[in-house]
Predict the structure.
Amino acid sequence: MAWYNTVGKDADTVISSRVRLARNINGYPFASRLDAAGANELIEKVSAPLEQAGFRKINFADISPVMATSYVERHYVSPEFATKESPRALLLQEQGGIAVMVCEEDHLRIQSILPGLSLEEAYKNASRVEKRLDEEFDFAYSEQLGYLTHCPTNLGTGMRASVMMFLPALTRGGYMDSLASQLSKIGLTVRGLFGEGSGAAGCMYQISNQITLGITEEDTLRKLNDAIAQISESERRARKSITGEALEQLTDTVLRAEGTLRYAYRMSSGEFIRLFADVRFGIALGIVKDISYEQLGSLLVEVMPATLTLSSENTPKSEAARDRLRAQKIQSTLAPRRE
Amino acid sequence: MLCEKCKKRTATVFYNENINGKTRSYSLCGECAAKLREQGELQDITSMIGSFADPFSQLHDQFFSGFFGMPAVKSISPAKKCPVCGSTYADIAASGKVGCPACYTAFGDELSGLIQSVHGTTHHTGSVPARQRARKEKEEQLGRLRQELQQAVKDEQYEHAAELRDRIKSLESAPDQEQEDK
């Protein structure tokens, strides 16, 4: 089962955890100086052991732009990887959410994405694949700078660990800017998801380590985990502080959002993200009772434009047709399940 | 309900304050609440997070001053090129990215300021590739054996010395990987 169809630890505040390792192979220039022949050779070499280990190879030169975007929506590849023109391939093992991008910015981007708070597990998954490839290839490495990467910001461990958090109460309370500035002081970055810059619409934020050199993988994960635990506590405290009139007002907003999600005839992805946040907040507060985190969470991928388009036998011809399709998909996913 | 401060946005923050037995309640929007907290007029529930050990605070300042403009390096000759991929420092400065692994050696001095400003250090402490680890272990082992050999010769234990010499020879000619498997 894919990561977005399941629910993990601390689901009230955490949507997913991701760890990626950047690696390059000696003997090849970095992506911007690698020609097509070199890139294809690299893809061939790296694919062999991974395909043997059960990975599925997806050559991005051979797939449609819609299919490529759908991999972005499922968080298996970066937007840059989906749209660049040079040869590149994804090696995917949905179990464990393990995706290896070959010829992205670095030769290899090995990542594992899992539901809920699960950084150690994600690191273990990515690390296992990395070790397998380490047996086969000579990774670019220097004793002083660690793993050598295309961009100096990834030197050292080449590891970026990130947690996608759901923080509606801190967002409503106007705490996100001060949180971001406090986190930046300890080497962590906050990035809003699904929204221009602030990410306020979906109340979803990606929190990740900024520094990769001079700190071990274990310390990076520990530091991030500590921060996530404290942010989760702050969010829960902020949620508890909503009482009286504020709670009644919020209950009204949440139930209206639930009604719209269940009964709308058409829905844009922007509206969906807003309503998603309200209803997810409602589940956390116990206001929404018969929608689960899994049901709602799967929609976050499945009604995104490209994935939605692919799910239909007839490609929707207009924006309105796609919005109609989205509303139908939401309705059927949220319908009470018959045993 | 509208925010009582700006009277424009919807109030989402509701506060009850109890000072000397007098209760005062606020209804504020997120933006106004943030402003008041900055001025210290409202209590900040995230201030707990500020109690993190803070070894990186200096780094933060360095990061923003250093990274967004590549540090100016005076002593670079524009003709200098990476011997492997041909990148110049101007290429690297323009893209923020190096051309190949060898660029880090070729432009070691020029890049060290940038690396220091991004990471706050220039020394790796994390994991090591298996080959590298094996190579290092082999070098260390060879170093120990050579010392032992010198000592054996000094002590006139020629039989032992011959044995050590053979071990050194076989270790030197062994590929790195065999070391790993023990």
Summary: DSSP finds twelve helices and ten strands in chain A. Residues 217-240 of chain A form the longest helix (24 residues).
